Structures are given as structure tokens and as C-alpha cells.
Amino acid sequence: MSRDENARRRLSRNSPQGLVVLVLALAGLCSSFMFTLVVPIQSQLPQLLNASRDDTAWVVTSTLLAAAVITPIAGRLGDMYGKRRIVLVLLIVMILGSVVAALSTGIVGMIVGRTLQGAIVGVVPLGISIMRDVLHENRVDSAIALMSATLGVGGALGLPVSALVAENTDWHWLFWIAGALGAAVFALILWIVPVSVLRTAGRFDYIGAAGLAIGLIGILLAVSRGNTWGWTSPLTLMLALGGIAVLLLWGWFELRVHNPLLDLRVAARRPVLLTNLASIAMGFALFTSNVAYPQMLELPVATGVGLGLSLLAASLVVMPSGLVMMVLSPISGTLARTIGPRILLIAGAVSLIVAYGFSLAFSTEVWHFVVANILIGFGIGFGYAAMPMLIMRAVPPSETGASNGLNALARSLGTSTAAAIVGVVLATLSTGDGETRVPTSQAFQVSFLLGIGAAIVALVLALLIPTKPAVGKTRASLPG
């Protein structure tokens, strides 16, 4: 039997499609869990690792940088060499990172481990692309909605688990558990998920990958560390302006190379461009709540703005948003087929506007935050489900991995920017001295206004997305 015949036989393998979706969704949960993994021990890291607070900040920053750089690159590699294969590679890297972090007692090993763990974020856009390749068309929208929901569900459900483990066992167990989860997902994908043999011909764009990585690292470092280094410091400005310059040069190069890392002409199509811009705004709106709500819940009652909850209790208050996203995923798929993903994105943006408007008026009782997080769950559940559907309807099959990777990057830019800007607001509008400074009520009000502003931007962009994007055709080939 020829190689092409073997490839087609693997593609037509009658895998239980429900199990395929479940396993890929589990991989997505594993991905988002990596970002809440260290939250329960973040304030203790200087003591645990015998390092300064500036140094331990890299435990979070390194994961963010790795995720942003690897996601679009992994998407292109998946298009060219097989999406399932790249998912398995990313899982191996994450497992290795978990083991390194679990064995670490110092800051260097922890940063290396967390950097490697960041690779897992690329499985979400790749998983969405696999679904388009191997599922029946009637199941694709619901499956994509579930996979997209894992971006919020994993964090909302993973935070209480991380808090419970950190409060009752040695903190190294957080990473052993992450490694075991990654190993289980690896085995399940190898066993259940069929090989997607749709490939893009050509050579991998190594220069484009390096240029994108350098530009993104410069900008994200400036955004994530600007509050510490100073927004007008020479280092921050050099990284920000240098990153922008590199990305402009990278874009010029990508438009001229024969096999670009990202086809910018596809990315510049109106539905794709507007969806990615809306993704930045939605990511900002999501992470504003992730930064502001837990702080309000955990601050002491004596501050006048906090509710004095423990981390575990606060994470349980935030958890309803993840549960709502999970419940919405099959509904979102059905709605997408009937009213279209654009309307879903509009509904998600409206729900976020209502959520932050509610928080502006009511934020003094625990139930206020439960209601707000339920509304956030509706907003992100609909919005995050709609965005990859809009992308998939606007790009050719051979571009799904790279295009979904770019969309995931857009969401990451939004969350990174929110973390930096909301962090500055909460630090600037604060009261007290030194380590005892706490955000004021005005700081949280401004944060909620920023969340509303981002959601309004997402709403306007969603309204401008064409209702019937035309998908171009790009040559794809089977391996062989």
C-alpha cells in the first residue's frame, strides 16, 4: 500500500467523534490550567525560591512569553507537518517543563520549567483545526465552542484545585500533577485522535518564525514588565519600539517570501482582521475581571473595599464563570448554525458590558460577584466560541492552524495588556504605605470602566464583520 493510501486510510478511520472532541477539550483544559497553576503560591515565591520579587515575577512572565511566541509558530507547523503530531510534541515539552519545575528548588529551574510549560497553549488552536479536519460538519461548531470554552473553564476550575493542593501539600505537587495530567492527555490523543492528513506544501519559514518571536518578546516584555521597570525607562522604550520595528520589518518580509509563516494577505481579509482585533478587546475584557475580582474578594474587610475571603473561597466565587462557559458550549454550536457566529460575538460583548456595569453599581456582597461572574461566563462563552468559527469561515482549510494560532495570539495580547494596564491602575490608585498599600474603591471602579470600554470596542468591531465572508482557495496536499 502506498504512503498516500495509508494517509487516506488513517484520515477515514472511524474514531468515535464524541471521544475525539472530549480528548481535545481535555487538552484545552490542561492548557488553560497552566496559567492558574502558580496563582496560589505566587505571593510566597520569593520565600520558596529564595529570590527577589522582581525575579519571581519571571515565573509568570516566562510562561506568557513562551505561549505568545509558540502558538502561531505551532499553528504553521501543524498545517505543514500534521496537527496531531505537533500537539503531541507540545505536550511532551509541557510534561518536561512540569518535571523540571517539580524538581526545582531555585529560581532558574522554575523559570525554565514554566517557560517549557507555556508551550501547551498551542494545543487549543491546533485542536480547533483538527476538529475542522476530522469531524462531521454538523458537529464542528459545537466542538469548536467546547474547545474555545476550555480557555476560560480551565482557569476557573483549575484555580480552586490549585489552591486546595497548595494549602494542603508541598507546592511541588502542583507541578507533578500538571505533568501527570499532560501524560494522560498525551496517551489519550495518541490513542483516540485520528491523524489529520491535510497538509500545506512548502518549506517552514525559519526567518519569519525568528522575526515574529523577537518582535513579540520585545513588545510583551515591555507591556508585562513596564510597571516594574518604569513605562518611560530606556529599557521599556527600547523593547517596545524595537519590538514594533522588528514586527514591521517581519511583515514586509512575510509579504515577499514564497512560503510565509503567516499569510498576511489572508490575515488582512476584513472578517479575519476584524475578528482578531475583536479578540484583543475580548481578551482584555476577560482578564480585567481575572485581575480585579479576586483582589476585591481577598482584600481584608478593614480596607473598606475587600470581602476578606481566602484564596480558595475567592476561587469558588469566580468558578461559576467557567461552569457557565462549559454549559454554553453545546448551545453556542447550535446557535452558530442558526444565527451565525457574528451574532454570538455581539451577544458576548453585550453580556460583558452588562457584567461590568453591574459591578460598577454592585460590588459589596459575595452574591454580587457571583452574578457578575455568571455574566462574564456568558460573555466569554459566546465570544470565545464565535471567534474561531468566524476565522474558520474566512480562511482556506490549509491555513486553519496558522490562522487560529494568530487568533489565539490576539487574545493573548489582550490579556497581557489588561494585566499591565489594570495592574497600573490598581497600584497607582492605592492607599497606605510600602507593602501595606492596597487599591482604593476608585481603582476598581476605573478597572470596571476599562472592562466596559474593551467590551464596547469588541461590540463595534463585531458589528462591522461581514455576514458572509468568502473563503479563498489555497493549494493543500497529502504528505508524500
UniProtKB/TrEMBL annotation:
SUPFAM superfamilies: MFS general substrate transporter (SSF103473). It is a multi-pass membrane protein. GO terms for cellular component: plasma membrane. The chain crosses the membrane at residues 20-41, 56-74, 86-105, 111-131, 143-165, 171-192, 204-223, 235-253, 273-293, 305-331, 343-361, 367-387, 408-431, 443-465. It holds the Pfam family MFS_1. Keywords: Membrane, Transmembrane, Transmembrane helix. One of its GO terms (molecular function) is transmembrane transporter activity. It is found in: Cell membrane. Gene3D superfamilies: MFS general substrate transporter like domains. Residues 20-470 form the Major facilitator superfamily (MFS) profile domain. This is MFS transporter.
